[in-house]
Amino acid sequence: MKKNRTKIIIILAAIGLSLYFLYPTYQDYQYTTTLNELTGADSVAFFEEHEDKIRSARLQRMKLGLDLQGGMRVVLEVDILRLLEELAENKDDQFEQLLAAARTEVAGTDEAALDVFARRFQDAGIRLSRYYGSIRDTDEQILRNLRRDADGAIDRAIQIVRNRVDQYGVAEPGIQRMGARRIIVELPGVTNEEEVRQLLQGTAMLEFKLLREPDIVLNVIERIDSYLAQERQDPETVDDIDPDTLDTPEFDPELTEEDLRQQHPFLYYVRPDQEGSGMSYVAEHHRERVREIVNRPEVRELMPSNFQFVFSANHHFISEGTEYYVLYSVYETPELTGGVITDAQATIDPQYNQPIVTMSMNSEGSREWARITGANIGRQIAIVLDEAVFSAPVVRSRITGGRSQIEGMANIEEARLLEIILKAGALPAPVAIVEQRTVGPSLGEDSVRRGLYSMILALGLTIMFMIVYYSTAGSIADLALLFNILFILGVLAGFQATLTLPGIAGIILTIGMAVDANVLIFERIREEQVTGKTLRAAIDSGYSKAFSAIFDANITTFMVGVILYNFGTGPIQGFALTLMIGIVASLFSAIVITRVVFDSLTERKGAKVSFG
User: Fold this and answer.
1) Model pTM greater than 0.85?
2) Torsion angle of alpha carbons 333, 335, 337, 338, nearest 10°?
3) For the chain, which has fewer Cβ within 10 Å, the N-terminal or C-terminal residue?
């Protein structure tokens, strides 16, 4: 036992971690079951009482794919040819004919639209400089610039879609680029097709909005907090509350979490900045709750006219593993819209070696921008895309000429993201839905049920075979197999990977591969026993001689899984992911766990273990 002490500690740690990572999934199942059993006010009361725990469990649970949970899968195509048409100058009938021919060819192929477009011009013997760039530019130079614009259009489309899906409140969405011009969007739990079409295909709204004065913001937050506190204490008289007579209870930072929730139901979620900036911070899992509160009609009445709460698009900081977002307060009417922006470029300021974004506007935008910046020196202007703030720079001086420089980004990646956002209002490339598939909740439940049945059946047959054929040794292999499945599910939950129907198929395949390693070991042990070796010596020799064959077989399968994961999409990636995790888990359980059990059983002199 002493020689295996380290192995035992590792095994117990792996089991403990797996159970720890799977516990939120169990919690979520319990909460969901309880909420489904309750109705009306009881359901609402239960949710409010356990809201933090419910949201936390839902956030940390094992993620289910679209095929198991139900929802929508949409394939979007960015119209790059439309972008090329918008960028062209001096367009004539010949250009329109070549563009139409390219559009016809693109419709029947997955080839990049720009490559098809360029080939059409080359075949016709027409230089691209006739419509793009300078007459002195070569086709290669123009194509390089057009490819940059096309890639930028796709990046903008992905960012806009991601922002809209986040604002829509879809849990665990999947957004990824596919090929040269397509985007796959998976929305678990969503079934309203028309709403999703409008969400994904609508025109992006880029706006510049002034932040409200900090003292007004704090007053609004206190009024909302007081209103909600009074509503909680006496819900029957809440309609008679006069907003002008609301008393703000003194905030005690030493209050317990539960007392804070009862006495300050808005400040419990929204924590104002202590420096008096007017900004507040909200934990990631509280954002939806805050949105619900500030959008209530009676709460809107507590706010001044032209007042709006808007969240930052990305988290501002992380504390104790929780992401915190900024809640900005802005004037609802924008000072300027993104249609006036002609260009934006992320770069490094050579003077201070800091990332910056330069922004250019057309003549109309330049005049308005000079007026706005001149009247608001020292104030912050939020850059808002689809009701999410991506940046809120401070106006340093009056900006004339329409060319601005935005500072304050943490790194060049953040600057490039802001560049994408600023360009969202310029050079539009329409997005079309080319494929749409809806998986109903009942179909998802049926997939889960059938997948679990198939996994249980495969597990049951494997367990029976091992016990019948290998007796005691087979039972030990079955024990390791159960731990193997626990480890796979624990890793999926711990890394918040998504379990799909093909992923269940990967687990089923892993079940067979897991016992395959033990079969090789047991057959080797049998051969060693035939030569007259003792049980302990036969076990040592069996594990030693079988290891190379087991390792070679599993490493080649693992490499195939890596290739499938990197080059496959959707279901193939789900299968490859569980297969790779399963291979590592099966090697650990088949070689380490079973060996520790055999060593423990054969420590005593004269101990017997049957290998069938």
Assistant:
1) no
2) -130
3) N
